[in-house]
Amino acid sequence: MSEIKLQPASTGIKGTLSVPGDKSISHRSIIFSALAEGTSHISNFLTGEDCLRTVQAFREFGVEIKQEGTNVTVQGKGLDALRAPVNPIYFGNSGTTARLMSGVLSALPLFSTAYGDPSLSKRPMDRVVEPLSEMGAEITGREKGKFLPLAFNGQKLRGATIEMKVKSAQVKSALLLAGMLAEGETVIYEKGITRNHTEMLMSQYGISLDKQGNKLTISGNQQPQASNLTVPGDISSAAFFIVAAAITPNSSISIENVGLNPTRDGIITALKKMGAHIEVDQVEKVGHEPVGRVYVKTSELKGCTFEGELIPNLIDEIPILALAATQAEGTTYIKDAKELRVKETDRIEAVVTNLRKLGAEVEPTEDGMIISGKNKLTGGSVDSYGDHRIGMMGAIASLITEGTVLIQDKECINISYPNFFDHLKKVCK
Ligand code: S3P
């Protein structure tokens, strides 16, 4: 594990960036292409460690996947060509691989086992195991399937009506994938709006699905058909540089090719509410997803309350939003975000501990945090706890601290943003 010491950006940050491909869409592009019949070409694929876990998982099922940089070619041979892996599949740190693959692995007539790294092994899997069991899935695992490792005695599932207990796109996607492969019809009632990339990609890969409000209906025995796809830039990665420019004096940044799916753009809504100067233009559709350019410059921010329906729309951006709140005049309340406690690490604890170390005034609550601004940050050491988004929050904080910031375990950032430090260097010139 190596560390990096970062200096404040004394003259501001400037420039144009194009952030890497969206993590959620990259995972799904591999899943649909690998299950499909025919050859799919994916460009601007995220080569972060998490998405490579999904690639590797399908290679273990005998799917030929060629990756050259951010271009990926998947030789889909259809569902019947998949064969059971001999060895356990390693999901690494990737919650999305673990949850979405659970939907697939329980619904294919193959036996497989899977395990994760220490962080993923602590994250709840019962949220997918329980509803999949209602469809007839046979999944066993540690503590009755609450945690990885899991074993999937895959078989034809039967459609069911499922009322979701958590607001989670991963759970919804696992059920949609299982429903697509099952016998009969599956009806899913969502508890709230979550990212809809699976629904978008189902349409792209020729799968029919009906959505009426929070009710999703999918018929079974559907075989995806190959498709070519360009992955939009990840708004969750762009968020770090959007906040960087907003909080650093004398700064302005343009980020091109940012995915602007309305189920994902809550960070822009939230920062605008705080008073950030953000402009979005050049918006066009790439496949089924809107993309555009985001321009942001140094802004006077004010504290706000963030809660309710907005939270799932910016759940991964809360660490960097919390950093922005330390630079806002007044108090920011983040509520209804208990899900943060079961992310790559307990992100409420990790954000509070690290921001306090840097001199911020932050109080944890059960389902969020309270941040008092505006505070000059001092500098210090940030422990990422192996969580990419905590590491990047610390790195962006270094732009505005009085002293240096030491980021421990900087490698974890490769999980979602492999060229993060190159981009940081580029805008600091
Ligand atoms: C994801 C959904 C979210 C998000 C995660 C990616 C996805 O998780 O935090 O980084 O790709 O579906 P939940 O579904 O657990 O909210």
TrEMBL record:
<dbReference type="InterPro" id="IPR036968">
    <property type="entry name" value="Enolpyruvate_Tfrase_sf"/>
</dbReference>
<dbReference type="GO" id="GO:0009423">
    <property type="term" value="P:chorismate biosynthetic process"/>
</dbReference>
<feature type="binding site">
    <location>
        <position position="347"/>
    </location>
    <ligand>
        <name>phosphoenolpyruvate</name>
    </ligand>
</feature>
<feature type="binding site">
    <location>
        <position position="389"/>
    </location>
    <ligand>
        <name>phosphoenolpyruvate</name>
    </ligand>
</feature>
<feature type="domain" description="Enolpyruvate transferase">
    <location>
        <begin position="11"/>
        <end position="424"/>
    </location>
</feature>
<feature type="binding site">
    <location>
        <position position="95"/>
    </location>
    <ligand>
        <name>phosphoenolpyruvate</name>
    </ligand>
</feature>
<protein>
    <recommendedName>
        <fullName>3-phosphoshikimate 1-carboxyvinyltransferase</fullName>
        <ecNumber>2.5.1.19</ecNumber>
    </recommendedName>
</protein>
<dbReference type="GO" id="GO:0009073">
    <property type="term" value="P:aromatic amino acid family biosynthetic process"/>
</dbReference>
<feature type="binding site">
    <location>
        <position position="316"/>
    </location>
    <ligand>
        <name>3-phosphoshikimate</name>
    </ligand>
</feature>
<keyword id="KW-0057">Aromatic amino acid biosynthesis</keyword>
<feature type="binding site">
    <location>
        <position position="343"/>
    </location>
    <ligand>
        <name>3-phosphoshikimate</name>
    </ligand>
</feature>
<dbReference type="GO" id="GO:0005737">
    <property type="term" value="C:cytoplasm"/>
</dbReference>
<feature type="binding site">
    <location>
        <position position="23"/>
    </location>
    <ligand>
        <name>3-phosphoshikimate</name>
    </ligand>
</feature>
<dbReference type="InterPro" id="IPR001986">
    <property type="entry name" value="Enolpyruvate_Tfrase_dom"/>
</dbReference>
<feature type="binding site">
    <location>
        <position position="23"/>
    </location>
    <ligand>
        <name>phosphoenolpyruvate</name>
    </ligand>
</feature>
<keyword id="KW-0808">Transferase</keyword>
<dbReference type="InterPro" id="IPR023193">
    <property type="entry name" value="EPSP_synthase_CS"/>
</dbReference>
<dbReference type="InterPro" id="IPR013792">
    <property type="entry name" value="RNA3'P_cycl/enolpyr_Trfase_a/b"/>
</dbReference>
<feature type="binding site">
    <location>
        <position position="168"/>
    </location>
    <ligand>
        <name>3-phosphoshikimate</name>
    </ligand>
</feature>
<feature type="active site" description="Proton acceptor">
    <location>
        <position position="316"/>
    </location>
</feature>
<dbReference type="GO" id="GO:0008652">
    <property type="term" value="P:amino acid biosynthetic process"/>
</dbReference>
<keyword id="KW-0028">Amino-acid biosynthesis</keyword>
<comment type="function">
    <text>Catalyzes the transfer of the enolpyruvyl moiety of phosphoenolpyruvate (PEP) to the 5-hydroxyl of shikimate-3-phosphate (S3P) to produce enolpyruvyl shikimate-3-phosphate and inorganic phosphate.</text>
</comment>
<dbReference type="GO" id="GO:0003866">
    <property type="term" value="F:3-phosphoshikimate 1-carboxyvinyltransferase activity"/>
</dbReference>
<comment type="similarity">
    <text>Belongs to the EPSP synthase family.</text>
</comment>
<feature type="binding site">
    <location>
        <position position="123"/>
    </location>
    <ligand>
        <name>phosphoenolpyruvate</name>
    </ligand>
</feature>
<feature type="binding site">
    <location>
        <position position="28"/>
    </location>
    <ligand>
        <name>3-phosphoshikimate</name>
    </ligand>
</feature>
<feature type="binding site">
    <location>
        <position position="24"/>
    </location>
    <ligand>
        <name>3-phosphoshikimate</name>
    </ligand>
</feature>
<comment type="subunit">
    <text>Monomer.</text>
</comment>
<dbReference type="Pfam" id="PF00275">
    <property type="entry name" value="EPSP_synthase"/>
</dbReference>
<feature type="binding site">
    <location>
        <position position="170"/>
    </location>
    <ligand>
        <name>3-phosphoshikimate</name>
    </ligand>
</feature>
<dbReference type="InterPro" id="IPR006264">
    <property type="entry name" value="EPSP_synthase"/>
</dbReference>
<keyword id="KW-0963">Cytoplasm</keyword>
<comment type="pathway">
    <text>Metabolic intermediate biosynthesis; chorismate biosynthesis; chorismate from D-erythrose 4-phosphate and phosphoenolpyruvate: step 6/7.</text>
</comment>
<feature type="binding site">
    <location>
        <position position="170"/>
    </location>
    <ligand>
        <name>phosphoenolpyruvate</name>
    </ligand>
</feature>
